[in-house]
Amino acid sequence: MSDSNARDAILAALDEAAAFEHAVICQYLYAAFSLKKHPQEGGFGWAESETVRSWQTTLYLVARQEMEHLGMVWNLTTALGGRPNIHRADFPVPCPVVRGGQLTLGPFGLAALDDLMAIEKSHENASSYVASLYRGIAEMITSADFAGTDLFSGPERAQVTHRTLQLNRGMYDMELARVTDLNSALAAIDQIVEAGDGHHHGRGDNHLKMVTRCRDELERMTDGNSTFNPVRNVVANPSAIDNPVSLSASKLFDATYQTMMLIMDRFYLPDGISYAERMALNRTAFFPMMTMIIRPLGEMLTQMPLGLNGSESAGPLFTPVSRLIVSKDASYVLDALYVRLKEHAAHGAQLTALVSGQQTDWATVLAPRFVFLADNLARLASNFASLVKLDMPDLHRIPSRS
Asked: According to DSSP H, which parts of 80-229 are helical?
C-alpha cells in the first residue's frame, strides 16, 4: 500500500470513529436533558431528588468525557494532516452493538441505559464494532509507521490541548493530549478505549460502571413503586414536532448546535489559525455556547409540548451540519460566523416573545428562562464581534431578569 493510500485508509477510519463518538455524545445528552430537575415537576419527592440529580450529573460527566474522546480523534486526524470530521448521520444512527442495531435519541430509562451500557461494554469485547474499529486504527498506524510512512505530517500547532483551551489539567473531567508520533497516537487510542472498560485517567469508575450504577438504582427505585417517575414524557427521535413554539425552539437548538460545530471545524483547522482567532473561537464555543445555550435550551425543549394536543414532550433533534464554511480567508469565515450568531440572537428574541404570549403552565415556567437565553445569545454575538474586532451593528438586546 502506498503512503497516500495508507494515510487515506486511516483517515477514513478516524472519520468513522468521529461520527460514532459524536452520536454517542448526543445520546448521553438527550437522556440527561429528559430528567426532571425538581420535585415540583411531580413523580418523585425530596427523598429521591438527590439520586435523580446524581443521574443527570453522571450523564453530563460521561458526555464531557466522550467529548474528550472526539477531541482526541480529531487530534489524531490533524496529526496525519487530515481535516476533522464534524458530520454524522441523522438519528437513528446504525450501530451494531446496541439492541435493534441503531443509536437512538431516547429519554432516560432502562432502555436508554441498556444501550449506553452496550456501547461501553463494546470497548472490552475485542470482536465488537467499537473495539475492532479502534484496534484497526492502531494497527494501521503502527504498520504504516514501521513501513517508514511519514504519517505525522500535520502541523503541531493544530493540536488542541488543555493549554489551547486555557484549562487546568483534569478540569471538566477532560484531558486532551498532543498527538505527534506513533507513541502519542497509540496512547490517544488507549485513552479513548480505556474510559469504557478501565478507569478514566485513574480518577474513579469507568463509564460502564457509572452507567450500570444508574441503571441499578433506577431499577431498584421503580420496583414496586408505580408512582416514581423522574423522567419527562419525552419522545424518542422527536422528528414530528407540530407545536409551532416548540418547533421554533427546536430550530433554534439545531441552528446554534450547527454553529458550534462549524466553530469546532475552524478551531481544529489542520492548516492552523492565528492565536487571536483561536482564542476568540474558544471563548465563544467551548463553554459559553455549550453551557449557556445548548444545555439549557435542550433541557427546556423536553418541557415543551410535541404537538398542539397530547401530553408528549419534544426534545432536540441534533440535526447535523449540512455544509462547511469553506474559505482560507479568516475574515470571511469570522464574518459568516458572526452573521449566524446575530441570526441566533434575533431568533432568540422572537422565540422569547412567542413563549411569553402562551397562556399555558409550561410557558409560565419557561418564560423567564427564555428571557435569560435570549440575553445570552445577544451577549454571545456581541462578545464574538469584540473578540475578532468586527464592525458591530447594534444588536437587539433582551433585558435580563434583573
From this structure: 110-121, 129-146, 162-165, 182-197, 207-222
What CA–CA distance (Å, rounded) separates 216 from 223?
Answer: 11
Note the pTM of the prediction, 2 decimals: 0.93
What's the CA gap between 33 and 313, in Å, rounded?
12
Which residues are CB-neighbours of 326 under 8 A, at least 6 positions away?
A: none
**Residue 31 neighbours by CB under 8 Å, 6+ apart:** 59, 106, 107, 108, 112, 113, 116
> Which residues are registered as beta bridge partners of 93?
103
- Name 283's Cβ contacts closer than 8 Å, sequence gap at least 6: 383, 387
Are 7 and 149 in contact by the 8 Å Cβ rule? The answer is: yes
Euclidean distance between CA atoms 230 and 184, whole angstroms? 43
C-alpha cell belonging to residue 223: 420496583
Q: What SS3 string covers 26-60? A: HHHHHHHHCECCCHHHCCCCHHHHHHHHHHHHHHH
Q: Are 131 and 7 in contact (CB under 8 A)?
A: no
Domains of the chain, by residue range, sit at: 1-237, 238-402
CA 313 to chain centre: 21
Contact 397, 375 (CB under 8 A): yes
- Residue range 1-237 forms a domain whose CATH class is mainly alpha
How far apart CA 84 and CA 35 sit, in angstroms, is 32
For residues 372 and 370, what is the distance between their CA atoms, to the nearest angstrom? 5
Q: For the chain, what is the mean pLDDT? A: 89
How is residue 40 annotated by DSSP?
A: G
Stronger pLDDT, 54 or 310, i.e. the higher one: 54
Confidence class for position 330, pLDDT limits 50, 70, 90: confident
Taking every pair of Cα atoms in the chain, the longest distance, rounded to a whole number of angstroms, is 69
pLDDT, tens digit, 9 for 90 and up, residues 41-82 = 999 999 999 999 999 999 999 999 999 999 999 999 999 999
Pick the CATH number of 238-402 from 1.20.58, 1.25.40, 1.20.1300, 1.20.1260: 1.20.1260
163-194 confidence digits (pLDDT tens): 888 777 666 667 888 999 999 999 999 989 88
For residue 303, pLDDT beyond 90: yes
First to last CA, the chain: 65
Nearest to 285 by CA among 388, 157, 397: 388
One-letter amino acid of 402:
S
